[in-house]
Design goal:
Blueprint (H helix, E strand, L loop, with lengths): L2 H13 L11 H13 L24 E8 L15 E10 L4 E6 L5 E4 L4 E4 L2 H19 L5 E6 H10 L3 E5 L3 E3 L9 E3 L2 E5 L1 H9 L6 H19 L8 H11 E3 L3 H5 L2 H4 L7 E5 L2 E6 L2 E6 L1 H15 L8 H11 L2
Helix pairs in contact: 1-6, 2-7, 4-5, 4-7, 5-6
Length: about 325
């Protein structure tokens, strides 16, 4: 695999959920990617290192975790902009530096969890609206008892631009769909069941819809669409779209990963078994409180998923420190 294909593959793997860094095959694209990453920097209030880490880490040599967050900050849905936006997509990915494997856990947006920012339980999608990325990260850390080392946040508007820049993607649509577009025009996206080429608006509608199956199935679709993007981006014919992809990311991307840190993830694409990742889902069931629908996460599923991610990160035992115990005590009292 040539250098530009390797780096682009890495970029698209990450950009679907928000990263999108490209080292490029030319000085022009490299400089463009560096500028976009610099413009997208937004540090967390806690600083660079998670409170669940005893020391700082280096993604070039350490196992790391990245929280991918998709938001919708369109004027119609969220007139107050990015800060008040809910997270439509939450995926925690862990990267094992020894075997260059990746595990991705989809966290249903309606999961009923404790949100430290406000001190009570609510849908996890509200955490970002309550306190931006700081609140989203702390909520996921509290929920799974796992350090979130980095985050990548991408507005869904960029998803449309990126898929279009790649000339569309092929996907096997599982059912007939009639859905609104990114401008909330009702039933403006109509797709028939079967394998077909999707443009950005069509892919976004399929990634978002929850009318036809469930939150868990929706998470699986989002991760399947990621694979479709990776396949399209790895094709030689996509080379002419790299500049447009970077430009679209520059408008909608926020991260606390530096350009140099992003580049270190190239080894996952270069792995002997090629790039692969295991996808995971949190089991649970619907519940209603005060007339509001929530997703009640099964405790055994939560523990199993958390333990698997900890093992993948090389954390052999639960991070059972005093802060975690106090947090659990708070939750149990609610």
């Amino acid at each position: 695999m040539s250098k530009w294909k390797i780096i682009l593959s890495l970029a698209v793997i990450l950009l679907f959920f928000g990263v999108g860094s490209i080292l490029g095959y030319s000085a022009y694209l490299t400089n463009k990617a560096v500028q976009v990453t610099e413009q997208s920097q937004m540090e967390l209030a806690r600083g660079e290192t998670s409170e669940k880490r005893q020391t700082s880490i280096n993604p070039d040599i350490d196992n790391t975790s990245i929280l991918f967050v998709g938001i919708d900050s369109s004027n119609k849905r969220n007139p107050e902009g990015e800060v008040s936006s809910r997270s439509d997509s939450l995926i925690l990915a862990t990267f094992n530096n020894e075997d260059h494997s990746v595990k991705m856990l989809n966290i249903p947006r309606d999961s009923y969890v404790y949100i430290p920012e406000v001190g009570y339980k609510d849908k996890i999608t509200h955490a970002h609206a309550f306190g931006g990325m700081d609140a989203a990260v702390s909520t996921v850390e509290n929920m799974l008892d796992i350090p979130v080392d980095y985050y990548v946040r991408l507005d869904f508007n960029s998803f449309v631009d990126v898929v279009n820049a790649l000339g569309g993607i092929r996907y096997d649509v599982p059912f007939h769909i009639e859905e609104q577009n990114s401008q909330d025009n009702k039933n403006s996206i109509v797709l028939e069941e079967g394998s077909q080429k999707l443009n950005g608006e069509e892919a976004l509608a399929l990634a978002r819809t929850r009318k036809y199956d469930s939150d868990l199935a929706r998470g699986n679709r989002q991760m399947d669409l990621l694979e479709a993007i990776v396949q399209k981006a790895s094709q030689t014919g996509s080379i002419g779209s790299y500049g447009d992809v970077i430009d679209s990311l520059g408008k909608h991307l926020k991260t606390n990963l530096s350009f140099d840190q992003l580049v270190t993830f190239k080894d996952y694409v270069l792995s002997q078994d090629h790039f692969q990742f295991d996808t995971m889902q949190l089991k649970g069931e619907a519940m209603t409180l005060d007339g509001i629908w929530y997703y009640s996460v099964d405790e055994q599923s939560l523990k199993h998923s958390a333990d698997e991610l900890k093992q993948h990160l090389g954390i052999d035992t639960p991070l059972d420190d005093e802060n975690t115990a106090n947090s659990t005590e708070k939750e149990n009292s609610l």
